[in-house]
Amino acid sequence: MRFEVWAPQADRVTLHCAGATRALERDAERVGWWTGDADAQDGTRYGFAVDDGPVLPDPRSRRQPDGPDGLSAVVDQERYAWLTEWAGRPLPGAVLYELHVGTYTPEGTLDAAAERLDHLAELGITHVELMPLCPFPGRHGWGYEGVSPWAVHEPYGGPEALKRFVDRAHELGLGVVLDVVHNHLGPSGNHLPAFGPYFTDTHQTPWGSALNLDAPGSDEVRAYLVGSALAWLRDYRLDGLRLDAVHALRDTRAVHFLEELSAAVDALADDLGRPLFLIAESDLNDPRLVTPREEGGLGLHAQWNDDFHHALHTALTGEAHGYYADFARAPFAALAKTLTSGYFHDGTYSSFRGRHHGRPLDRTRVSAHRLLGYAQTHDQIGNRAQGDRLSASLSPGLVACAAALTLTGPLTPMLFMGEEWAAGTPWQFFTDHTDPELAEAVRRGRRREFAAHGWAEEDVPDPQDPATRDRSCLDWSEPEEALHARVLAWYRDLIALRRRQPDLSDPDLAAVRVAYDAEARWLALRRGDIRVAVNLAKDTAAIPLGIRHARVLAAWEPVEAPDADGVLSVPGESCVVLTQG
């Protein structure tokens, strides 16, 4: 088997494989690369030593059986026999479901999660978006401090477990999207600097030195990240990738890394003959991100739209701290703007940032499906002091209203696991750092962060306490209980409506119409012949729809059709979907 590694500054590189040692040779065709052959098969352990240093895992390791600091293991990608033929499932028309493998089930494994995929197929989900799977120290964590970005976290089941998960998902008609982190690596178990200039001090990120995307040596670093992305899509038959915090990718080159990545993914889609897509997390509000490359954009296929979340959250809860302040001044107006224009901040002043922010989105060129809308995500729940979901503080009726606006609105909807039955379990920030100093630093930092917002230290869960992760696991007995079952049925009905009614999948943002009364706390959404009315007030609202003949398609509480004057009476904290005629 041929082994190779990029170590441009090394004088010598040694391969340690299956107990044997041999010196690698410089590759005559590729500057900085070292190669050599050794006897190996699937599961064989190996590592590299640079200039007689310690034996380290392969930067392109496909498996780390003993964690990020252990030896790598050879993975024979052809060994797995795929059971399901899969032509792919594109993003337009999708309903996504964000899932964390470690807490989706108490077992916290890919195989256990695969056994629960029937639930998502029955719900009407089209794509499962897995939170990061790359190895990280310890057993449990969110996954955003992973290292070895070509490998699968061993406690989740390793590479073959991911293939079994994807196979089962595809059998049920579900696409699979993976959240990948290209903007930083975790602080523990990161051995890349020993091999070459993977990082640069030219730029800084909130997590330290930036990945080297534009300094000397960056050609190979970019190829490393692009190769990792293509490997996930090709070797594991994934349908798309979610790119974490792309605004933290510091790149001054004429061809931005994201443009290079999107071109490579589109080329792979052509080669494989199935659709592939990239979804960015970005707070830049820059439509160039999702504008095709041939029109001068970066060519990504979609992005998360936090503006919709923030507007909806403030309308529902009244919260006004931090970044919610910009939206809380007029939450119904903010919500109406995101439903019709995509971004709230499109060149407007942001008090949270102390400057103007964003750029207008051209609704004639940008399809609504390129923006993901959601009422809850791992970030928006888990980064609260106690990891409380909307259902912890809102009535079931208001939860139903949030679902109605998310699932009947123009943006591509995404749910966070458990949201569909108003899960009573929190989703808290948890870690399992094996380095005691790092563990204590994270614990102190978390408590210090929330103490600044008035939280008592004892009220902030200890991230390192195993009970914090255990509390965050979904309780799969809840959907059988009356209230949770009612919410679940509501979500199922709304997703089915979105699938059946063409007006609800119309990607034209310019065709969306919104009316609202902020004082009375109601909002009405028009999408073709479909009307959606939500009443966030406790009292019954009289909503002038302007139509006299309408048929109720779904309602949280029973409602009558509009009266002779076209006025619809909606009970307090309730919502309804109607069709004209």
UniProtKB/TrEMBL annotation:
Read off the InterPro entries from this record. Answer: DUF3459 (IPR022567), GH (IPR017853), GH13_cat_dom (IPR006047), Ig-like_fold (IPR013783), Ig_E-set (IPR014756), Trehalose_TreZ (IPR012768), Trehalose_TreZ_E-set_sf (IPR044901)
Q: Which UniProt keywords apply?
A: Carbohydrate metabolism, Cytoplasm, Glycosidase, Hydrolase
State the CDD domains in the record.
Answer: AmyAc_GTHase (cd11325), E_set_MTHase_like_N (cd02853)
EC?
Answer: 3.2.1.141
Enzyme class comes to hydrolase
Of which family is this protein a member? Belongs to the glycosyl hydrolase 13 family.
Matches recorded under NCBIfam families: trehalose_TreZ
Q: This chain belongs to which protein, by name?
A: Malto-oligosyltrehalose trehalohydrolase
**What organism does the UniProt record list as the source?**
Streptomyces dengpaensis
Q: Source taxonomy lineage?
A: Bacteria, Bacillati, Actinomycetota, Actinomycetes, Kitasatosporales
Q: Which gene name belongs to this protein?
A: treZ
